[in-house]
Amino acid sequence: MERRKFIGRAALATISSALGTEIVFGKYLPNGYTPLGLQDPDPFSLFNKDSSMVLLNDRPWNMEAQAHLLDDKVTPNKYIFIRNNGLVPENIDVDNWTLTIDGESVDKTRTYTLKELKSKFQQHTYQLTLECGGNGRSEYNPPAKGNQWTIGAVYCAEWTGIRLRDVLEDVGIKNDAVYIGYHAADKHLSRDPNKEPISRGAPMAKALQDETLLAFQMNGKDIPLVHGYPLRLVAGGWPASVSGKWVQRISVRNKEHDGTKMQGDAYRVPCNPVAPGEKVSEEDMCIIESMPVKSLITYPKTGAMINEGNKLTIRGHAWAGELKVSKMEYSIDFGATWEECQIQNPVNRLAWQHFSAQVDFPKKGYYEIWSKATDSQGTAQPMLIPGWNPKGYLNNACQRIAIKVT
Amino acid sequence: MKEKDTSSQKGQNRRAYNLKPIVFGCIGVMVVIGIYIISAPGKTLFNNLGPEEDITSVPEKDDFDRIENGIHLRTGLIDAPGLMETVNNCTNCHSSKLVTQNRMSAERWKATIRWMQETQNLWDLGKNEAIIIDYLVENYPQKASGRREVLSEIEWYVLEQ
User: Fold this and answer.
1) What is the distance in angstroms between the Cα of A86 and the nearest Cα belonging to chain B?
2) Distance in Å, alpha carbon of A384 to nearest chain B alpha carbon
3) Model ipTM?
4) Which domain holds residue A333?
């Protein structure tokens, strides 16, 4: 009898979770055969996303939420933005997945199986805010290059995994360690196997934080394929590109990591402020670390019409990268006067904080509600678009929703 | 004898039964070849069958790069001089959505092309480079948005309270 290689059960589980449905007779799928579902050009069903999500790009896949979709305290998968630099890996073999720790500053290169990582190290769960460095890019003038994110490339999910620090301590790190850099299973858009779509990282201080995880789970389930299954580095409060998906290797470097998208103008802003449109040379660009203070009104959806005399409840979230949000305000008169919102403490460090307020309107008419968060060092969100930068990062201008009182 | 007959009959039946998949297989193969001939003429074995084959290939080709209401359907790009140069050079690695989302000056498109050539395996565009840049600047112009735009495209709804 002719022997055929059938698809492994683990790979099947991956495909099933990507499709969000069981593949009947899946065990008879020949190895290497991509079910039609995965070629499905409908990314909403493919990635289990809500149909109100906004597709920015289909190769690579990039999709964002809208403000009102992010109303949940812990963001469910269906409202989580997708940001890819390359092609989502296919045929993930979870049984044979390994993580290698190498680099100039490890005592000895070491490889762990996924099973080992899960059993050997203590597991922790944190809610962590992840925001794309380019969230808000669409508002820069002159326009900045790249996917034109508006406000929906942010979320706060609950991540479960082990501390990167525990693994690095187990491997043994030399005193000259400066930076970690990840390497992952995604493929370059050109399918050139010698190119990595993205390989970023963080300084040791961030790598060794309690909340910096090698995560297996998001919101209590296996991480969805498009968000990094089966293993993702999660570093809350920093540009989400630091949180490498599908991680297979972490290099402990004795210098700033020099992987793809660590250099040039990627995830960098001018070290000193520049005029809009000004040319900035590479040596004058600095790596983004903590994300700036920001907030989102997630209720009501913009465009609400209410009756005169009614109070309006507003609510949303605020976050401040490495810092805490200490004050939350709103304005209904284009920033002329501000009222304070109630704001809760974060569930844990680096989780977004929830705010709410009751808004009174003095008379009929068109209003905009502006939200302004202030971080623990006294820095607030700007009302106008902040300092221009060539790639359009870090737009934390106040969010605005439109209201009519009739 | 009788027994022998039965067994040979059985054998015949078995052979006939065994032939079934082959017969169906042959029909299947013929159908597939038939579909192939109908759907992919001009590219294949039957290329030299005669001019009739070439006639059917014309609408096929048009379909792939069909333009409706001034839009190239397959990519969503605007139909204007330079369209096909842009389609053929700029949508191989990434989606056309990455092109149409961006608004850049000729100088910055040129810098972006250089960056793609230096780091992303983009080839030398030769004479097409100027054609593509002109196409992009002309059809996807920059608009000045100021320091903050007016809120637009608001969908008004009655909020039940």
Assistant:
1) 9
2) 6
3) 0.85
4) 294-405
Count of the separate structural domains present in chain B:
2
Quick one: residue A15, left, alpha or beta (phi over 0 = left, psi -120 to 50 = alpha)? Answer: alpha
Nearest chain B residue (CA) to A305: B158
Chain A residue with minimal CA distance to B118?
Answer: A264
Of A303, A334, A315, A308, which Cα lies nearest the Cα of A402? A303
In contact, A128 and A154? CB cutoff 8 Å: no
Chain A residues closer than 8 Å to B109 by CB: none
Which of 61-80 (B) contact A at CB < 8 A? none
B69 domain-assigned? no
Report CB contact under 8 Å: A59, B94.
Answer: yes
Q: Which of A307, A385, A402 lies at the smallest CB-CB distance from B154?
A: A402
Q: Measured in Å, how far apart are chain A's first and last C-alpha atoms? A: 78
> Would you say B79 and B86 are in contact if contact means Cβ atoms under 8 Å apart?
no
Size of chain A, expressed as the number of residues it contains:
406
DSSP state, residue A94: G
User: Under a CB-based contact definition with an 8 Å cutoff, are residues A371 and A272 in contact?
Assistant: no
DSSP 8-state class, residue A283: G
CB–CB contact B97 A145 (8 Å): no
Give me the residue from B104, B119, B120 closest to A145, CB to CB.
B104
CATH number for A317: 2.60.40.650
Is the pLDDT score of A197 beyond 60?
yes
Whether residues A241 and A123 share a domain: the answer is yes
Number of domains composing chain A? 2
Q: Tell me: do A210 and A357 sit in the same domain.
A: no
Average pLDDT of chain A, as a whole number: 91
In terms of pLDDT, which residue wins out, B39 or A2?
Answer: B39
Among A149-153, A267-271, A344-348, B6-10, the range scoring the smallest mean pLDDT is: B6-10
How much of chain A exceeds pLDDT 70, in percent?
90
Comparing alpha-carbon positions, the chain A residue that sits nearest to B92 is: A190
pLDDT of residue B35: 53
Q: Does A3 fall in a domain?
A: no
- The reported pLDDT for the residue numbered B134 is 95
Strands (E), A114-204: 123-131, 154-163, 179-184, 201-203
**3-class SS of residue A100:** strand
Residue A200 in tokens: 């970023």
Q: In sequence order, what DSSP letters do the residues of B8-76 get, joined into one string?
A: HHHHHHHHHHHHHHHHHHHHHHHHHHHHHHHHSTTSSGGGGG-HHHHHHHHHHHHHHT-EETTEETTTT
From B93, B149, B155, residue closest to A190, measured CB to CB: B93
Residue range A38-95, pLDDT digits in tens: 445 788 999 999 999 999 988 899 999 999 999 999 999 999 999 999 999 988 999 9
Q: Is the peptide bond before A60 cis (omega within 30 degrees of 0)?
A: yes
B94 to A115, A168, A191, B87: CA distances (angstroms): 36, 36, 11, 11
Please identify which residue in the block is written with the tokens 């059960």: A9
